[in-house]
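Trying the structure run again after the queue cleared.
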Amino acid sequence: MIAFCFLVRDGEKYIEKNLKSLISFAQKYLKGFRIFYIENDSVDNTKNILSHYSKKNHFIKGKHLNLNKLYSEDMCDKTGKINCKSRVRFLAKLRQMLLDFVLNDFNKFTHICMMDFDFISFDERTLSEMFDLVKTQKMDGIFGMSYSKKFVFYTPYDVMSIQPPHKRISVLMNAELTHVTSAFSGFGIYSVDSIRENKAKYNLQCDGIEHVDFNKHFNKLYVYSKFKPVYDGEKKKKIKKKKNLTK
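Done. C-alpha coordinates:
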Protein backbone atom coordinates (compact mmCIF):
# COMPACT_ATOMS: atom_id res chain seq x y z
CA MET A 1 0.00 0.00 0.00
CA ILE A 2 1.40 3.37 -1.09
CA ALA A 3 0.66 6.75 0.52
CA PHE A 4 0.99 9.81 -1.73
CA CYS A 5 1.41 13.03 0.28
CA PHE A 6 1.50 16.69 -0.63
CA LEU A 7 1.15 20.23 0.71
CA VAL A 8 -0.84 22.82 -1.21
CA ARG A 9 -1.83 26.46 -1.08
CA ASP A 10 -3.59 28.31 -3.91
CA GLY A 11 -3.25 25.40 -6.32
CA GLU A 12 -6.41 25.95 -8.33
CA LYS A 13 -4.66 26.01 -11.71
CA TYR A 14 -3.08 22.56 -11.33
CA ILE A 15 -4.71 20.63 -8.48
CA GLU A 16 -7.57 18.94 -10.38
CA LYS A 17 -5.45 18.00 -13.40
CA ASN A 18 -2.71 16.58 -11.20
CA LEU A 19 -5.11 14.64 -8.99
CA LYS A 20 -6.54 13.01 -12.10
CA SER A 21 -3.02 12.18 -13.36
CA LEU A 22 -1.97 10.69 -10.03
CA ILE A 23 -5.16 8.65 -9.62
CA SER A 24 -4.85 7.34 -13.18
CA PHE A 25 -1.25 6.25 -12.54
CA ALA A 26 -2.01 4.64 -9.19
CA GLN A 27 -5.01 2.68 -10.45
CA LYS A 28 -2.99 1.43 -13.40
CA TYR A 29 0.27 0.46 -11.66
CA LEU A 30 -0.36 -0.03 -7.94
CA LYS A 31 -2.28 -2.63 -5.97
CA GLY A 32 -3.32 -0.21 -3.25
CA PHE A 33 -2.89 3.48 -2.52
CA ARG A 34 -4.15 6.48 -0.58
CA ILE A 35 -3.68 10.22 -1.15
CA PHE A 36 -3.10 12.58 1.78
CA TYR A 37 -2.87 16.37 1.66
CA ILE A 38 -2.56 19.37 3.93
CA GLU A 39 -4.01 22.57 2.53
CA ASN A 40 -3.09 25.89 4.10
CA ASP A 41 -5.32 28.95 3.87
CA SER A 42 -5.98 28.98 0.11
CA VAL A 43 -7.86 31.99 -1.19
CA ASP A 44 -8.65 30.56 -4.62
CA ASN A 45 -10.83 27.49 -5.36
CA THR A 46 -8.35 24.91 -4.03
CA LYS A 47 -10.37 24.05 -0.90
CA ASN A 48 -13.52 23.37 -2.89
CA ILE A 49 -11.71 21.19 -5.42
CA LEU A 50 -10.04 19.12 -2.70
CA SER A 51 -13.26 18.79 -0.72
CA HIS A 52 -15.07 17.62 -3.85
CA TYR A 53 -12.46 14.97 -4.61
CA SER A 54 -12.27 13.83 -0.97
CA LYS A 55 -16.03 13.26 -0.83
CA LYS A 56 -16.05 11.55 -4.22
CA ASN A 57 -13.05 9.27 -3.54
CA HIS A 58 -12.65 7.37 -0.26
CA PHE A 59 -8.88 7.06 -0.82
CA ILE A 60 -8.28 10.83 -0.55
CA LYS A 61 -7.91 12.31 2.93
CA GLY A 62 -6.93 15.83 3.87
CA LYS A 63 -6.61 18.54 6.48
CA HIS A 64 -7.31 22.23 6.01
CA LEU A 65 -5.27 24.72 8.03
CA ASN A 66 -5.60 28.43 8.60
CA LEU A 67 -2.01 29.62 9.00
CA ASN A 68 -2.53 32.76 6.95
CA LYS A 69 0.28 34.61 8.69
CA LEU A 70 2.77 31.98 7.56
CA TYR A 71 3.13 31.47 3.84
CA SER A 72 6.47 30.09 2.76
CA GLU A 73 7.09 32.44 -0.18
CA ASP A 74 6.44 35.50 1.98
CA MET A 75 8.70 34.53 4.87
CA CYS A 76 12.16 35.32 3.54
CA ASP A 77 13.94 38.53 4.41
CA LYS A 78 14.35 41.53 2.13
CA THR A 79 17.55 40.15 0.63
CA GLY A 80 15.45 37.53 -1.16
CA LYS A 81 17.48 34.65 0.24
CA ILE A 82 15.70 31.52 -0.94
CA ASN A 83 16.44 29.16 1.94
CA CYS A 84 15.91 31.48 4.87
CA LYS A 85 15.32 29.89 8.26
CA SER A 86 11.71 30.91 8.72
CA ARG A 87 10.65 29.46 5.39
CA VAL A 88 12.32 26.06 5.69
CA ARG A 89 11.26 25.67 9.31
CA PHE A 90 7.68 26.38 8.34
CA LEU A 91 7.85 23.82 5.54
CA ALA A 92 9.49 21.30 7.88
CA LYS A 93 6.63 21.78 10.33
CA LEU A 94 4.01 21.22 7.64
CA ARG A 95 5.80 18.20 6.19
CA GLN A 96 6.05 16.64 9.65
CA MET A 97 2.35 17.27 10.20
CA LEU A 98 1.70 15.53 6.89
CA LEU A 99 3.96 12.62 7.80
CA ASP A 100 2.23 12.22 11.19
CA PHE A 101 -1.15 12.35 9.45
CA VAL A 102 -0.14 9.42 7.22
CA LEU A 103 1.54 7.39 9.96
CA ASN A 104 -1.67 7.25 11.95
CA ASP A 105 -2.45 4.45 9.47
CA PHE A 106 1.09 3.09 9.89
CA ASN A 107 0.35 -0.61 9.42
CA LYS A 108 -1.35 -0.04 6.10
CA PHE A 109 1.55 1.46 4.16
CA THR A 110 4.82 0.06 2.88
CA HIS A 111 6.01 3.29 1.20
CA ILE A 112 5.32 7.01 1.33
CA CYS A 113 5.72 9.25 -1.71
CA MET A 114 6.27 12.83 -0.54
CA MET A 115 5.47 15.18 -3.42
CA ASP A 116 5.58 18.76 -4.62
CA PHE A 117 2.19 18.76 -6.27
CA ASP A 118 2.59 21.64 -8.71
CA PHE A 119 4.16 19.42 -11.36
CA ILE A 120 3.29 19.87 -15.03
CA SER A 121 3.77 16.28 -16.15
CA PHE A 122 5.46 12.99 -15.29
CA ASP A 123 6.10 9.70 -17.05
CA GLU A 124 4.02 6.88 -15.57
CA ARG A 125 6.30 4.03 -16.65
CA THR A 126 9.47 5.42 -15.09
CA LEU A 127 7.64 6.34 -11.86
CA SER A 128 6.44 2.74 -11.71
CA GLU A 129 10.06 1.64 -12.16
CA MET A 130 11.04 3.80 -9.17
CA PHE A 131 8.50 2.03 -6.98
CA ASP A 132 9.81 -1.34 -8.14
CA LEU A 133 13.41 -0.34 -7.38
CA VAL A 134 12.78 1.00 -3.89
CA LYS A 135 10.94 -2.22 -3.01
CA THR A 136 13.04 -4.89 -4.68
CA GLN A 137 16.42 -3.37 -3.75
CA LYS A 138 15.31 -2.51 -0.22
CA MET A 139 16.23 1.16 -0.43
CA ASP A 140 15.46 3.73 2.26
CA GLY A 141 14.37 6.13 -0.46
CA ILE A 142 14.58 7.03 -4.13
CA PHE A 143 14.16 10.29 -6.07
CA GLY A 144 13.79 11.39 -9.65
CA MET A 145 15.60 14.14 -11.57
CA SER A 146 12.92 16.74 -12.21
CA TYR A 147 13.55 19.80 -14.32
CA SER A 148 12.05 23.20 -14.96
CA LYS A 149 10.37 24.04 -18.24
CA LYS A 150 11.57 27.64 -18.12
CA PHE A 151 15.17 26.67 -18.84
CA VAL A 152 16.30 25.93 -22.38
CA PHE A 153 18.95 23.49 -21.19
CA TYR A 154 18.35 20.62 -18.81
CA THR A 155 18.45 22.14 -15.33
CA PRO A 156 17.33 20.18 -12.25
CA TYR A 157 14.36 21.80 -10.54
CA ASP A 158 15.40 20.93 -7.00
CA VAL A 159 19.17 21.02 -7.33
CA MET A 160 19.90 22.41 -3.85
CA SER A 161 18.40 19.33 -2.18
CA ILE A 162 20.96 17.08 -3.83
CA GLN A 163 23.92 16.02 -1.71
CA PRO A 164 26.80 15.62 -2.41
CA PRO A 165 26.59 19.14 -3.88
CA HIS A 166 25.38 19.97 -7.36
CA LYS A 167 28.84 19.74 -8.93
CA ARG A 168 27.89 16.08 -9.35
CA ILE A 169 24.78 16.83 -11.40
CA SER A 170 26.52 15.69 -14.58
CA VAL A 171 27.22 12.35 -12.90
CA LEU A 172 23.58 11.98 -11.88
CA MET A 173 22.36 12.81 -15.36
CA ASN A 174 24.63 10.26 -17.03
CA ALA A 175 24.09 7.41 -14.58
CA GLU A 176 20.78 5.61 -14.31
CA LEU A 177 21.00 5.02 -10.57
CA THR A 178 23.26 6.96 -8.20
CA HIS A 179 23.72 6.76 -4.45
CA VAL A 180 23.25 10.14 -2.70
CA THR A 181 23.00 11.38 0.86
CA SER A 182 20.09 13.65 -0.03
CA ALA A 183 17.77 14.65 -2.88
CA PHE A 184 14.08 15.32 -3.44
CA SER A 185 13.17 16.60 -6.91
CA GLY A 186 9.46 16.83 -6.18
CA PHE A 187 8.94 13.07 -5.87
CA GLY A 188 10.59 11.33 -2.91
CA ILE A 189 9.61 7.71 -2.23
CA TYR A 190 10.51 6.50 1.27
CA SER A 191 10.26 3.08 2.90
CA VAL A 192 7.91 3.19 5.90
CA ASP A 193 10.04 0.56 7.65
CA SER A 194 13.09 2.80 7.21
CA ILE A 195 11.22 5.80 8.60
CA ARG A 196 10.20 3.76 11.64
CA GLU A 197 13.55 2.06 12.22
CA ASN A 198 15.47 5.33 11.96
CA LYS A 199 12.84 7.36 13.86
CA ALA A 200 13.00 9.87 11.02
CA LYS A 201 11.42 13.26 11.61
CA TYR A 202 11.74 16.67 10.01
CA ASN A 203 13.89 19.05 12.01
CA LEU A 204 11.69 21.98 13.02
CA GLN A 205 14.82 24.02 13.84
CA CYS A 206 16.66 23.33 10.57
CA ASP A 207 18.76 26.11 9.07
CA GLY A 208 18.97 24.71 5.54
CA ILE A 209 16.67 22.83 3.18
CA GLU A 210 14.25 20.65 5.14
CA HIS A 211 14.73 17.65 2.82
CA VAL A 212 18.50 17.58 3.42
CA ASP A 213 18.02 17.51 7.18
CA PHE A 214 15.32 14.83 7.00
CA ASN A 215 17.46 12.65 4.72
CA LYS A 216 20.26 12.53 7.30
CA HIS A 217 18.32 9.71 8.94
CA PHE A 218 18.96 7.34 6.02
CA ASN A 219 21.90 5.57 4.36
CA LYS A 220 20.40 3.94 1.26
CA LEU A 221 19.12 6.85 -0.82
CA TYR A 222 19.31 6.92 -4.62
CA VAL A 223 18.54 9.15 -7.59
CA TYR A 224 16.90 7.46 -10.58
CA SER A 225 17.75 9.76 -13.48
CA LYS A 226 15.29 8.15 -15.93
CA PHE A 227 12.36 9.64 -14.02
CA LYS A 228 12.17 13.30 -15.04
CA PRO A 229 8.98 15.02 -13.87
CA VAL A 230 8.52 18.54 -15.23
CA TYR A 231 7.86 21.59 -13.06
CA ASP A 232 7.05 25.16 -14.00
CA GLY A 233 9.90 26.68 -12.04
CA GLU A 234 8.31 30.14 -12.06
CA LYS A 235 7.59 32.08 -8.91
CA LYS A 236 3.94 31.96 -7.94
CA LYS A 237 1.99 35.18 -7.96
CA LYS A 238 0.67 36.33 -4.64
CA ILE A 239 -3.09 36.32 -4.30
CA LYS A 240 -4.42 39.01 -2.00
CA LYS A 241 -7.36 38.25 0.18
CA LYS A 242 -10.51 40.24 -0.33
CA LYS A 243 -11.64 42.26 2.66
CA ASN A 244 -14.72 41.03 4.44
CA LEU A 245 -17.15 43.91 3.94
CA THR A 246 -19.69 42.45 6.34
CA LYS A 247 -17.57 43.19 9.40
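The chain has one domain: 2-230. Worth checking whether this holds up in the mutant runs.
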